[in-house]
Every structure is written in C-alpha cells, then in structure tokens.
Amino acid sequence: MIKILKYGEVENKDIFARVVPKVDVSGIVADIIYDVRKNGDEALYKYCEKFDGAKLSSLLVSKEEIEEALTLVESQFLDILKKAEANIRKFHEKQKRNSFIINDENGIVMGQKVIPVDRAGLYVPGGTAAYPSTVLMDSVPAKIAGVGEIIMVTPPGKDGKINPVILAAAYIGGVDKIFKLGGAQAVAALAYGTESVPKVDKIVGPGNAFVAEAKKQVYGTVSIDMIAGPSEILVVADGKSNPSHIAADLLSQAEHDKMASAVLVTDSNDLATAVQSEIEKQLPLLSREEIARASIDENGKIIVADTLMAAIEISNEIAPEHLELCVDNPFDYLDAIRHAGSIFMGRNCPEALGDYFAGPNHTLPTSGTAKFSSPLSVDDFVKKTQYTYYTKDALSRVARDVEFFADKEGLTAHAKSAVIRIEE
Description:
alpha/beta; five-stranded parallel beta sheet
C-alpha cells in the first residue's frame, strides 16, 4: 500500500528519497562495449542470441519487413500515429533555431551557424512493452533539425522480428535505417560503428540500466541526450480533486517498471486517504498489476503539506520528470514551478496525453535532473559553429588591447599574433 507522509512530521530524507539502482552494471557494460569495439557484428549477433533469444541472419530490418508491418497494423492505429506525428511536429517546429550574423561595426563580421548533426542514433526500448511513441518523439525532432541520417536500434523478439507497431512508427517518423539490436551492445554499435551499423554522432532515447550505463560510458566518443533513470510522476492536487482520477494517473506511471516512482503532494488529508484507498481498488484491474504493485509499495508516496504553495515547493525540490498540476486555474501557479521535465495543467490533462499525443516531447530529465536539464528537443540534434572576420583596419583598432590582455595571461605568442599584422 502506498504510504502517507506528513511534511514536517517526518524526516526530509524520507520525503525526498530517490530510487537508487540496487545493482552496479558498469563492469558488465564495459566488457560488452569492449567486445563490440573489437569484434563488431560478430559480437552483436552473439549478444542478440544470448539476451534476446534470436538467431539472426541480418541485423538490418529490410524494406520488405517494414512493408509487411504496415499491413499488420490496424488502419485506425496508423491514423492515430499520423495524428500524433502531426502534433509532435507542430510543437517542435517552434523550436527551430536560426543562424545569425552581426556586422554593425565597420570592418567586423561575426556570426553563428546552426548545423544539424550528420547522423543520429535512436534507442527504442523493447522488453516487456513496445513504445511506438518513443519512436515518434525521437525521430520527429531529428527530422525537423535536418539530421542527415537517422539510425534506429530496437531489440527483436525471439522470432527475430520487430514489433510491427514500432516499424510503423519508424516509417511515419522518417527513420532511415533500423537495426535489430538492444541493450548496451546496441549503444556500443552506434557509438563506434560495426561492419553493418554506421557510427553516429549523437545517441538519444531511454532504456534500462544497461542502456543508461552504456550511454554514460560512450559519452565523449558521441554525444548523448541524457542519462535516463526510472520513470517518475508527481501530482500536485488540492482537496477538490477526484481521487479516482489521481489514483489512475499515479498508476499510469507505476506500471512502467518496478523502479518507477509515483508521488502525490496535496494539502488535503481527506484526498490523501481517498487516493490511497482508490489505488488499492484499481491495482487488481491492471494488466501489469505485479509491476505496478511493486512500484507503488516500494517507491510510491503521498505527501501531505500545509498549503498548496508548500506542495509546489516540495515539487520544486523533487524536480520530477512528469508534473501534474490538478487544481483550478493552473496557470496562476505556473510561474511558481521552477523544476519539472513536463507540466500537465489542470484537471483534464493526464500525463498519458503527453506520452502519446499532445505534442511536447516525452523524453524527459529524470532523477531530479530537471533542475538543470531539459526535455529532448530539436536543439539536441543541432550544433552551433561561430565565425569571426576582421579587416586589417578593424584589427588595428583593437590589436594593442588584445596584446595587453594576452600579456596579462603570460601568453606572449598570443600577443605577437595580434600585433605582428599591424607592425608590418
């Protein structure tokens, strides 16, 4: 049963406790990465058989497999995928950055170019659930950014096939190549390249502890979006909220995995006890009851604060991945929220809306990193290059300043390179 904690009556470490992975997988991941770097495709086929139970003849998903998948997915779901893609595109188009140029001083030109990465790698989880939503959330911003080639990896089933809904989403999202790969070995293949898998410049997308650790270890060889921890939801709700709605929203996150975190912060004791009871009613009805039960019992909590603003301050300290603000007039409180990956406003905006359909990205900072990082966006798929141009006259006006500055740092060659041009 989810626990109820009264803020101010229990220690803060209980209020703000985070889910901590119980197993260190860094050594296993390092060995897998080394093996893939050394042995390439041979290692990938080996791990696919070992971890996924699939004996493959090719890692690359063929055009025929994609065409077959499109015939296997219901037309209604294809239509929904297209609607979701349009919503995601509409939101992310607003994130596009423009290059700029400054030439308002005689003889001086400065500027910045915004350039997409040449090749991006998308990791799409498999395992206990399929996530076509992640395919769209990762591929659409990459396409908008102008990435030259989008490579997707996702683990196959034991039959060596990819779930058709994943392939359909990849087709709609404009993915260029898809490989039957999962786990740390997939991340290693994207980072270093193999005979079949192209090396990418950036890897994005969530995964399990092995995937997260692999992304951490290859960072520097490639760029990554973030190190994703267990999924989180925090609901700030007042006493007028419907307890069955709040319970359903908490369970929507708890069913992701046993390490997921579902938290309610409220100023109402009555709501707290009603939600606790409602969770117990709804749990047996879930298809993933065992997973959700473990998440709720181990990591779930209801925090009772004195006021709604105190509840928001608790939320700011936790900095959740998903924040639901279940109150009247939610925009009155928006400025008070400083740290959250994505905010769902009002009583009719469940977090699931953002997972699938609304448009804002669902690849979000977890584990409190919303205090300093942001959701996946078009920015993740571009880089900036700056440039500077000076005429000789423009340089002559500032060369002595540069020389003086360089001398202060003891870098006489720097100083000389500036003044030699005006002393000729």
